[in-house]
Recover the amino acids of this structure.
């Protein structure tokens, strides 16, 4: 490439580079809602739609029971796996139900939630 072409390329690219370096100001802050509706997470799978009472009957006393304004997390574990069930109320005033489940081995590797639930029931 000749020196003239290099200079021309530099002159052309400078204005374009200036256009891409600006920051976009953040939009106005919105108040966060109390939590997403349960329908936002609805999936099929093991334990979906069960309430805390049913989970406790299946697996015994949870190792953790964490409650926040719109969410409840129950954790069940044995030597084979750890299962986290996330419960949200499907509507205001209704009993929270499972909308999401995570399962992992005791060292943190992902495992099949259905297999973990079966292992927890065998106690």
């Amino acid at each position: 490439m000749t020196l003239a072409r290099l200079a021309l390329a530099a002159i052309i690219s400078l204005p374009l580079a200036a256009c891409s370096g600006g920051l976009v100001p953040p939009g106005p802050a919105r108040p966060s809602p109390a939590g997403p509706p349960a329908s936002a997470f609805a999936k099929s799978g093991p334990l979906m739609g069960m309430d805390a009472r049913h989970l406790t009957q299946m697996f015994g006393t949870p190792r953790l029971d964490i409650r926040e304004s719109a969410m409840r997390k129950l954790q069940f574990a044995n030597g084979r796996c750890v299962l986290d069930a996330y419960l949200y109320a499907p509507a205001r005033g209704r009993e929270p139900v499972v909308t999401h489940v995570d399962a992992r081995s005791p060292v943190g590797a992902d495992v099949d939630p259905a297999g973990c639930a079966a292992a927890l029931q065998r106690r």
Summary: The radius of gyration is 25 Å. Residues 81 and 105 are 4 Å apart (CA to CA).
